[in-house]
């Protein structure tokens, strides 16, 4: 069922683009079904490059889940690089799925995974190249239902005009239910449309009725309670924001009574082992960001760090058994031949049977020459014993996320880790062959002081010196510094983001403070962080900024060579967007936030309590020391 005509036309374009194999499909593990033998077709769309999308474990999970059901054909599409986008436009060819070269507008459902807000322009590119109207209200019944999920859907408002439905929470149960219900509603709506249309109607009248039937089907979809009992679908077109004279959001009104007032996250409540892991993942022909087997060992995190969105939206904590993990990893290895397995979770060393799991993985995979990596390690006592547990396996650099370097700031952000555990863990790693360390830090947190910045450099340099004490040579240490963006559904959601001037000053300060050549300070791009803040924290008015920037040429903004911040700031100026209000101003805890009606299991009451505790702790920090915060962005009590 491959569209050979389109495939042959595409092949002619590929001589003039980079990495052409990423646009051809046919990889080991991909699933091709006869569209005539299925009840519905969906395309999982990733709004970034193939190299990043194929490294996303969630895509592999949903691809496996949906293709396991014989009723559905599930295929993939990725955002084309700029050279291929231009080639498609010059040739007047559509964006298509990799499995069958089916144009995107021929699917019943297109599902976007939103992992990073700065990629939102890529979503518009994919819709436009796929010949799907950008605005949901312009779509007819014969065009795909456009849905979005992932962390970027936690504030859906900047994408409200472009997306039909946001799916909040876990996808393993919710996506199959949405697919089944939408196909049934679509068939019923098509019967209604057929009964209403007749030969005397012109094309505009037929399209108008088709849009009406589609909208009614969409309303029925979001109004229907799923088996979980919680409404997890949000259709923005049925909600209207209201603003006061100062531009503050004061209300969100439903435009029809049958849609839910609030949306709750869908959460897998069953035994986590009951949801099979993808053991025949797709193996790309080209190099991707993560060329390895990924096994999710645990979803959620037992800690409650105030800055972390994933901690909140991934609750409750759910784990897989050691036996399930090892068996899935072994089966995946046999199907792929990868020489590395990555054990994924928000905090792998908090897995309840961590040491037994690491030992079992070592016993099974060390004889096969397969490396086991743990990319999300918490700095705790287990870090000291980890190098001994996995000795003899090829070592990559040790990657750790202390986030901040001082104990009082750790108390403020609620990340209970110990510097001594970190230093002794690094010492043990150096003894067993590790020679590089990468540390992740945040700057711009509420109440941050110059001494907190000093602590980042001091920690990185001390680790490098521990390496010299252990090995005779300074160890290479990279301190990767992110500019803090207060995220929706976290206790810091009411705090404003620090300014451009502050982040630029802090970055210079860190680099000037650093003395050892073996230590590198790498700060994330400040302009991109500010754009992330706008798209993360903005309301529905930001949608016009997004569309205008895209129409003026914004593409692949997550990539340094493509990002043009001056384009975005000019669009904001032209449209009268107050960036200080949107990004930097703190918001009162009583103030309505753009994402409040898209709820999560923890609820606003918990977040308010944590925010107020944070304010109290900031006061204690400021009172206890003479080194005052470099700048306050504290919500007034």
Give a written overview of the molecule.
This protein has 637 residues and is α/β, with parallel strands linked by helices. The protein has a domain at 4-237: Rossmann fold, CATH 3.40.50. It has helices at residues 4-13, 50-53, 57-67, 82-91, 120-129, 171-196, 203-223, 309-313, 322-336, 354-365, 382-389, 407-413, 419-431, 450-471, 500-513, 526-537, 542-551, 565-575, 579-584, 604-624; strands at residues 40-46, 72-78, 109-113, 145-149, 165-167, 233-234, 239-243, 249-254, 293-296, 298-299, 318-319, 340-344, 371-373, 398-403, 436-443, 476-483, 519-523. Strands 2-1-3-4-5-6 form a six-stranded mixed β-sheet, with helices on one face. Strands 14-15-16-17 form a four-stranded parallel β-sheet, covered by helices on one side. It has a three-stranded parallel β-sheet with strand order 9-12-13, covered by helices on one side. Strand 16, helix 15 and strand 17 (519-523) form a beta-alpha-beta unit. Mean pLDDT is 91; it is low at 631-637.
Oligomeric state as shown: single chain
The overall pLDDT average reads 91
Helix segment tally = 20
Strand order of the largest sheet: 2-1-3-4-5-6
| DSSP strand count | 17
Q: How much helicity do the residues have?
A: 25-40%
Largest sheet: 6 strands, mixed
CATH topology tier name of the domain at 4-237: Rossmann fold
Amino-to-carboxy terminus distance: 62 Å
Q: Class of the domain at 4-237, according to the CATH hierarchy?
A: Alpha Beta
CATH-level-4 superfamily name of the domain at 4-237: Response regulator
């Amino acid at each position: 069922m491959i569209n050979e005509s389109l495939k042959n036309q595409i092949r002619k374009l590929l001589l003039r683009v980079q990495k052409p194999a990423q646009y051809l499909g046919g990889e080991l593990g991909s699933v091709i079904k006869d569209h005539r033998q299925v009840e519905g077709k969906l395309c999982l769309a990733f709004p970034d490059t193939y190299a990043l999308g194929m490294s996303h474990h969630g895509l592999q999970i949903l691809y496996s889940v949906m293709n396991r059901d014989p009723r559905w054909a599930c295929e993939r599409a990725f955002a084309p690089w700029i050279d291929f986008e231009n080639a498609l436009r010059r040739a007047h060819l559509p964006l298509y799925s990799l499995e069958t070269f089916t144009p995107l507008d021929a699917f019943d459902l297109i599902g976007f995974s939103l992992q990073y807000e700065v990629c939102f322009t890529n979503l518009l590119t994919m819709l436009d190249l796929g010949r799907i109207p950008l605005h949901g209200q312009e779509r007819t019944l014969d065009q795909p239902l456009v849905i979005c999920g992932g962390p970027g859907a936690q504030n859906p408002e900047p994408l409200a005009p472009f997306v039909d439905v946001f799916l909040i929470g876990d996808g393993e149960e919710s996506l199959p239910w949405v697919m089944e219900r939408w196909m049934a509603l679509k068939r019923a709506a098509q019967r209604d449309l057929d009964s209403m249309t007749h030969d005397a109607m012109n094309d505009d009248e037929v399209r108008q009725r088709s849009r009406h039937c589609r909208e009614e089907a969409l309303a029925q979809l979001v109004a229907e309670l799923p088996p979980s009992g919680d409404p997890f679908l949000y259709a923005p077109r049925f909600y209207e924001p209201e603003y006061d004279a100062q531009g503050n959001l004061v209300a969100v009104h439903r435009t029809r009574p049958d849609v839910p007032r609030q949306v709750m996250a869908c959460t897998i409540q069953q035994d986590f082992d009951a949801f099979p892991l993808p053991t025949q993942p797709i193996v790309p022909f080209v190099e991707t960001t993560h060329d390895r087997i990924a096994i999710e060992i645990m979803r959620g995190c037992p800690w409650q760090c105030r800055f972390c969105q994933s901690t909140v939206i991934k609750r409750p904590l759910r784990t897989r058994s050691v036996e399930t993990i090892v068996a899935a990893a072994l089966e995946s290895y046999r199907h792929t031949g990868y020489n590395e397995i990555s054990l994924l979770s928000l905090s792998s060393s908090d897995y309840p049977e961590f040491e037994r799991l690491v030992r079992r993985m070592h016993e099974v995979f060390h004889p096969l020459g397969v490396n086991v990596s743990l990319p999300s390690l918490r700095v705790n006592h287990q870090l000291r014993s980890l190098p001994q547990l996995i000795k003899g396996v090829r070592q990559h650099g040790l990657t750790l996320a202390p986030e901040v370097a001082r104990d009082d700031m750790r108390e403020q952000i609620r990340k209970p880790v110990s510097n001594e555990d970190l230093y002794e863990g690094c010492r043990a790693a150096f003894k067993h062959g590790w020679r590089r360390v990468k540390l992740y830090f945040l700057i711009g947190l509420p109440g941050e002081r110059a001494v907190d910045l000093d602590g980042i450099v001091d920690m990185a340099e001390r680790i490098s010196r521990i390496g010299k004490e252990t090995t005779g040579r300074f160890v290479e240490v990279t301190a990767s510094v992110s500019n803090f963006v207060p995220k929706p559904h976290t206790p810091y959601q009411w705090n404003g983001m620090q300014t451009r001037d502050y982040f630029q000053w802090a970055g210079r300060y860190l680099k000037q403070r650093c003395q050892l050549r073996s230590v590198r300070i790498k700060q994330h791009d400040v302009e991109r962080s500010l754009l992330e803040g706008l798209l993360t924290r903005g309301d529905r008015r930001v949608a016009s900024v997004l569309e205008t920037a895209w129409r003026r040429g914004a593409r692949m903004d997550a990539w340094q060579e493509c990002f043009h911040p001056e384009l975005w700031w000019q669009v904001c100026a032209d449209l009268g967007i107050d960036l200080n209000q949107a990004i930097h101003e703190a918001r009162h805890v009583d103030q309505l936030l753009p994402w409040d009606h898209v709820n999560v299991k923890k609820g606003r009451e918990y977040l308010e309590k944590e925010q107020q505790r944070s304010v109290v702790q900031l006061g204690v920090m400021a009172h206890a020391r003479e080194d005052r915060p470099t700048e306050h962005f504290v919500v007034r009590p």
